[in-house]
Amino acid sequence: MNAMARHANDARLRGLLRSAAGRAPPAGGRRQWLLQTLAAGVAWEAAPLQALRVRALRLIVVYPPGGASDAFVRVLAPALEAVLGHPVWIDHRGGAGGAIGLRLLAHAAADGHTVALSAITPFTLRRLRSDALPPLGGPDGLVPIGAALHTPSLLVATPALHAADFAAMLQQARRRSRPLRWATSGHGTTGHLILEQVQRQSGSRFTHIPYQGGGTQLNDALGSHFELLSTNVALQQMAHVRQGRLRALAVGFGQRVAALPAVPTLAELGFASANLASVFGLFAPPRTPAATVLRLNQALRAALQAPAVRQHIDASHQQAGDGSAQAFAHAIEQERRRNSDLPLQPR
Questions:
Q1: What per-residue confidence (pLDDT) applies to 32?
Q2: Which end of the chain is more exposed for a tag (fewer CB within 10 A), N or C?
Q3: H/E/C letters for each residue in the chain?
Q4: Residue 300: which of 328, 278, 276 has the closest Cα?
Q5: Do residues 210 and 125 touch, judged by C-beta distance below 8 A?
Q6: What is the average pLDDT score of the chain?
């Protein structure tokens, strides 16, 4: 048992003893009364531990800690616990653009106790993946549960680029002998799609710098390791924009972000095909029964209405997901068709 667990057990034991101290001993004597109280504490402790082993929900996050998905899942998990009535275990399995975590989900039991949080882009661009990404749908495919979060994309200039706005960035990209370096969270992510759509429409060339998640790339952006970064409108990123460490050039969303009223959307700048937001959702293992998917979808939608979750989503300028599992699957298919003609090579 680790120190934290021992501390928690000690606190419970002190509580039991304090509670017992306010009651008179039974006829059998104080020693017997104290032993009964301690035994009750042991039994009380064993029940939650047994429930944790049997009923915990494993929530695989297919990205490393430190990004927007990490901040979101840390407020979502307690809300899911309250709805489901049992613990939720966050398991970060980042790498390979989400493929590592999704492959882990593909081999999990279809019993409703393992789900994964992922963006939809690995599935919308599956044709470009050569890393054995599990399919979506069908008898052997992962099962969509529901949309969890719509996150506006944010294109920022790092201290390595002296461009006041998006137009100035494009001018520099055309004049430079070497392409601007544009970092994203990985090959086939929303940020990568934005890069490719801007590159195709503008005629400018950029060097793609793929990362394995959002935490490391943000630190490297502040260190001027590249000129451009596709990221998400989230609390940590917004703090650096407000403090002037990063300059917001454009957002990818249906409308301007309230916290960045002077920053245009990519659609306003004439790049409607690049005006993309990140959509995160929950997925279940293959062959998960429809009744289980429905229960998890209902739990997700209820958890998204929890005050702490709503507060986090509003404060980070995002939108909560909603709708059925079928609607989520339909949205993924629409996004796949929208990007089916991008001239990208499998990797």
A1: 55
A2: N
A3: CCHHHHHHHHHHHHHHHHHHHCCCCCCCCHHHHHHHHHHHHHHHHHHHHHHHHHHCEEEEECCCCCCHHHHHHHHHHHHHHHHHCCCEEEEECCCHHHHHHHHHHHCCCCCCCEEEEEECHHHHCHHHCCCCCCCECCCCCEEEEEEEEEECEEEEECCCCCCCCHHHHHHHHHHCCCCEEEEECCCCCHHHHHHHHHHHHHCCCEEEEECCCHHHHHHHHHCCCCCEEEEECCHHHHHHHHCCCCEEEEEECCCCCCCCCCCCECCCCCCHHHCCCEEEEEEECCCCCHHHHHHHHHHHHHHCCCHHHHHHHHHCCCEECCCCHHHHHHHHHHHHHHCCCCCCCCC
A4: 328
A5: no
A6: 83
Q: How far apart are the first and last CA of the chain?
A: 44
Specify the higher pLDDT residue, 323 or 299. 299
Q: What is the mean pLDDT of residues 90-111?
A: 92
Please report, for residues 65, 72, 126, 175, the alpha-carbon distance to residue 342 in angstroms, rounded to integers and kept in the order given. Answer: 30, 30, 12, 25
- In this model, does residue 37 exceed pLDDT 50? no
Q: How far apart are CA 128 and CA 239, in angstroms?
A: 34
Statement: residue 201 has pLDDT above 80: yes
Nearest residue to 312 (alpha-carbon basis) of 247, 246, 213, 235: 235
Residue appearing with tokens 């306003």: 268
* Nearest residue to 95 (alpha-carbon basis) of 133, 48, 55, 124: 133
The beta-carbon contacts of 72-75 under 8 Å, at least 24 apart in sequence, are 72/148, 72/149, 72/280, 72/312, 72/313, 72/316, 72/318, 73/117, 75/308, 75/309, 75/312
Neighbours of 295 (CB within 10 A): 14
